[in-house]
Amino acid sequence: MSIISVNNLSFRYSYSNRYILKDISFSIDETEFVLLAGASGCGKTTLARALIGLIPQFYEGEYRGEVSILGMDPATTPISKITSQVGFLFQNPENQIFMTTVERDIAFSLEFRGFSREEMRERVAWAMEIMGISHLASKRIEELSGGEKQKVALAGILALKPKILILDEPTAYLSPMSARELMDMLKRLNTELGITILLIDHRLDLAVEVAQRILVMKEGELHIDLPIKEAFRHNLSKEYGVNVPTLIKILDAIRRRGFSLDPPPLTVDEFIDLIKMGEQYDRG
Amino acid sequence: MIVVENLYFTYGSQGDYVLKDINLEIGEGELLAIMGDNGAGKTTLVKHFNGLLKPTLGHVYVDDIDTRDVPVSELSRKVGMIFQYPEKMFFSERVWDEVAFALRNFGYDESSISRLVQKILNIFWLWKYRDSSPFILSGGEQRRLAIASVLVWNPKYIVMDEPTAGQDAVQREILLQIINMMVSQGKTVILVTHDVEFVAEIRPRVILMSNGEVMYDGEATRLFRNPDILENAGLTQPILFKLESRLRNLGLIEEGFNTIDEAAKKIVSLLGGKHL
Amino acid sequence: MMRNIHELFKYESLNTPLHNIDPRSKLATIFIYLVLTIILGDITHLLIILIIILVQLAVGRALRKFAKGLLTLTPFLVLILILNYLSLGSVSASLVPVFRFLLFLAIMDLFFLTTDPDDFALTLESLRLPLTVSLSFSLALRFIPTMAEQVNEIVEAQLSRGLKLDQGNFFARIKKYIPILIPIIILSIKRSIEVAESLEIRGVDPSIKRVHYVALKLSTKDIIYFIINLAIVVVVYLISGYISSDSLITLLHFSKI
Lengths: 284, 276, 257
Description:
The complex is a heterotrimer. Chain B is α/β, with parallel strands linked by helices. Chain B has helices at 42-46, 72-75, 95-105, 110-123, 139-151, 169-184, 196-202, 220-224, 227-232, 239-249, 260-270; strands at residues 2-9, 19-26, 31-35, 57-62, 65-66, 79-82, 157-161, 188-193, 205-210, 213-219. Chain B has 3 domains: 1-78 and 157-169 and 177-235, P-loop containing nucleotide triphosphate hydrolases (Rossmann fold); 92-154, no CATH class; 238-276, no CATH class. In chain B, the strands form 2 sheets. A 6-stranded mixed sheet of chain B has the order 6-7-8-3-9-10. A 4-stranded antiparallel sheet of chain B has the order 2-1-4-5, with no helix packed on it. The mean pLDDT of chain B is 93. Chain C has 2 domains: 2-127 and 220-256, no CATH class; 131-205, no CATH class. The termini of chain C are far apart. The mean pLDDT of chain C is 86. Chains in contact: A-B, A-C, B-C.
């Protein structure tokens, strides 16, 4: 059942005469893990803002089309109501942490939502546990690394037990290890808690391992909407400005030699399995 | 040549050293990547090259000048620093002035300034924006402008801090071209990065840092075949080499591969010509 | 350089008796000390208050930080001294404003070095200040380290482009701060937009009654702390009528004989 649906959405910020979103339509089903990619400035962030009501409520402009998220209309529903069920993580965790200690900041998301103190405690403890940051509870924010700040910000969102999670380039500031950890975490949230995930990223090397479907935007239009394996039957990089994972580049090189691996393996493990299968096939 | 001798550094008067006993020689015309996890001390190290930081103990020499003896403004003529997200430092009304800023600080005469600014803006495809505000440029153009406003004074050494952070494929491609251009002009290029895939693409000499110490100094390829050192330093093995290690461990290949094409060739021969 | 200035006012979470005092009690306490500092104009009296505050700072393990802050501000203190000396012509009279300033710093440190900024915000809210005010305060405190880091980054970037901050006359120097100030202003505006977006998303709503995760609790020890300090203040005020620097000097003079 689709819990996000976007129909013919177009948007132009009031300060500009250029449309950033042009006639976008797609829908996302419950418990899907969707990757949204595209070059810088293609409109990814604007689209995400439109899903939670920042557009057109916080950013004004010309807005056409219809959006529905969990049955709510982001154009008219209060943002705080949407975000009690739809978590949104910004690129820079620094600017979404408001309190000076970890535990209090995670609790901050709950303080305006009518929870009792008892319930807050439970939820904060639960969110820290899931993110594996219980040991940081009383740490001061400025003592944390970038990766840890990201986890705190994410825990603050999880404490609300959202059904959907939207993340805007969450790995941009992270080291490769922290980025991988974050991806593994998202995968767990998706499979174990059934949270629907929309991940915006142009660092695809890690994201393709966890996502099921990819949307690719170019100059405000939605060009590709495919299961992730199918998307990589074509060369994505040149045209769309996305950073193609090395594994896909190897696949392309194999393809140029007249071979195709189908369905394309997206992780090293899948690649090895495929090669092993080929070996057996050869011997048998 | 940049020489680092027994360098120790701490921000406080006492307390932990952020850099511990660093010894390095960076030759002229070298392409070098200083790698490591966030907080490993990479940026702290390179800030010593133009004198923004002075050693607590030990010495840093740039062309035989002890960085302790000269101000940042003088060392910067030799060592150009391009910080992470360099477009943050823009302040001029016009692109032209942004690029001319450093030249004015260094005391160039107006005719040289015009000549150098025009030249660099042309190289970076920004001449048409010379009278525009730097703030109206696109992200990619802003990044190019930031790089141009350092390269304009023709520093011999260029340090780029996390140049690939937040960059899409097109911008990465341009960055590669700029690096190649600088190397072909005989400049020493020092990249500070944790982006293993990017370094795997260019294979420079790598200095790997962890907790303020140098863990490895040598060829990129050899380092990438050693996942243990990488992981101890908080980095991951580049995919190409991860695939190679796995195939080697399974006994499927004997010799390794160095490039994507070599990998493809090996794999095709492994598949024995069968179409799957 | 400017890098570490904010460190001098930074709260450190320690477990000292002073850290455990309710911030409202501390706020009331520093208020009466500030009033006393303004009322009293004699060096001896100010010295007595200073000693009392220093003892408390020592209890809160904040003495070292206070001393460091003082060291950084020494040129400023000397400047106050010289300016006052030029206008008043007496060293002892010029020392009074210097001591006042010193005390002011010590009293502020007594509160801010031992009080969690989040608790400070709670205190403001408990004083019935509107959410926008208390939230602004707590956000300001939260972002001081971030801003300081950012200022540092920009200074370093511009120095690396050959900017020489310490050359030229006064006006030339002021002008040199433009390449630093403009990026800081632009980045602050960008940050404020992002923070505003974030506030929306995190559900901040002044019309909803906020339930605090941590509540301030006033206990007997907090009340006793305030009463003791009130007693000290009253006693110091009362003796100030009898003892002054002049009488002390006379006393010293007699004791020599």
